[in-house]
């Protein structure tokens, strides 16, 4: 199939700027193309990995021994599909390869509120839904009505309502189901005064810039924040033994950025991989870092946190090809 390329370097397609080659690579701009490529992969006994905006992912230096499908917006794509919902609600259907930033811009422009908190988050709709992207205490699941996905096992299209997506903290049924590829999602928005929405958007943008900086090569938060409700977490014991955690006692999670900073790893470097000086849960590629260096640094962080607190950090970033 001439649409499928061989041995394509993946690092330019990621916000980390890291990653080896994909054995096979194809760009999909429609449901039909996704089905076509998945059918080819099935017939050629090839694994499939779907790449959106390339954020929130770390690809091995060895690359990916299968087919990488890069979701792209159709060349004739010019707008989203808006339709009326109940009362003051509008629904918007969005192709998975569309960028989250574009959806925010389009909805704010017509006085629809719901995703302003996501301003500045790179990546596509598919990635945001798959990982239940969130910030400022809000998350993608709050706005998703339905999701359309392709089952690669039998090439059928399935519909998932919100509860069927099994959304939880930075995860969904799609994140750990290699056979499901998100094709589109329907979001709900509320009508509101445009000036109020724009003011809130600016406020969120300022907070994000102050907290995270801009223009750096990274994948966003590398680790999940630590949920007090995890089965391996004894909240009372941790609060008794570690006074620094008391500031999080009335919050649902412990800030992982705080923990990494507290154990003295802010600014720590291994090769060109570095813990950010601005936000310790960001691991940066400060030059030509290898995935191996990122993994060594993340391993050091996990060891330090485990040695002090007795629990393991969980990666928020998806690891590919390891």
Total E-strand runs = 20
Which overall shape is indicated by the principal axes computed on the Cα atoms? globular
Class from helix and strand fractions? alpha+beta
What number is the mean pLDDT? 94
Write structural notes for this entry.
With 322 residues, this protein is an alpha+beta fold. The protein has 3 domains: 5-71, Uridine Diphospho-n-acetylenolpyruvylglucosamine Reductase, domain 2; 81-204, Uridine Diphospho-n-acetylenolpyruvylglucosamine Reductase, domain 3 (2-Layer Sandwich), CATH 3.30.465; 216-320, UDP-N-acetylenolpyruvoylglucosamine reductase, C-terminal domain (Uridine Diphospho-n-acetylenolpyruvylglucosamine Reductase, domain 1), CATH 3.90.78. 25% of the residues lie in helices and 28% in strands. The protein contains 7 helices and 20 strands. The strands form 6 sheets. Strands 6, 7, 8, 11, 12 and 13 form a 6-stranded antiparallel beta sheet that branches. Strands 1-2-5-3 form a 4-stranded mixed beta sheet, covered by helices on one side. The longest helix has 19 residues, at 194-212. It is globular and about 55 Å long. The model has no long low-confidence stretch (mean pLDDT 94).
Give a brief rundown of this model.
With 322 residues, this protein is α+β, with helices and mostly antiparallel strands. The chain has seven helices and 20 strands.
Feature tags:
Uridine Diphospho-n-acetylenolpyruvylglucosamine Reductase, domain 2; Uridine Diphospho-n-acetylenolpyruvylglucosamine Reductase, domain 3; six-stranded antiparallel β-sheet; 25% helix
């Amino acid at each position: 199939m001439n649409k499928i390329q061989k041995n394509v370097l993946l690092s330019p397609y990621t916000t980390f700027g890291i990653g080896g080659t994909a054995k096979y690579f194809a760009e999909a701009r429609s449901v039909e193309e996704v089905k076509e490529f998945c059918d080819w992969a099935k017939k050629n006994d090839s694994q499939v990995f779907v790449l959106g905006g390339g954020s929130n992912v770390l690809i091995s230096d060895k690359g990916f021994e299968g087919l990488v499908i890069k979701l792209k917006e159709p060349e004739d794509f010019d707008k989203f599909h808006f339709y009326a919902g109940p009362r003051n609600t509008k629904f918007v259907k969005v192709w998975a390869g569309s960028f989250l930033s574009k959806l925010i811009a389009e909805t704010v422009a017509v006085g629809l509120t719901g995703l302003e908190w996501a301003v500045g988050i790179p990546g596509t709709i598919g990635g945001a839904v798959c990982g239940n992207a969130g910030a400022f205490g809000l998350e993608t699941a709050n706005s998703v009505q339905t999701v359309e996905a392709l089952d690669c096992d039998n090439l059928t299209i399935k519909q998932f309502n919100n509860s069927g997506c099994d959304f939880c903290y930075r995860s969904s049924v799609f994140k750990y189901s290699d056979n499901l590829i998100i094709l589109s999602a329907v979001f709900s928005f509320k009508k509101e005064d445009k000036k109020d929405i724009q003011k809130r958007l600016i406020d969120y943008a300022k907070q994000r810039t102050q907290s995270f900086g801009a223009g750096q090569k990274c994948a966003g938060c590398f680790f999940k924040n630590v949920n007090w409700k995890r089965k391996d977490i004894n909240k009372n014991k941790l609060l008794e033994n570690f006074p620094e955690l008391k500031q999080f006692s009335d919050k649902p999670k412990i800030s992982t950025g705080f923990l990494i900073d507290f154990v003295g790893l802010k600014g720590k470097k291994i090769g060109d991989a570095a813990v950010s000086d601005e936000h310790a849960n960001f691991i940066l590629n400060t030059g030509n870092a290898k995935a191996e260096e990122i993994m060594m640094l993340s391993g050091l962080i996990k060891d330090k946190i485990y040695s002090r607190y007795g629990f393991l950090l969980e990666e928020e970033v998806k690891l590919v090809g390891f």
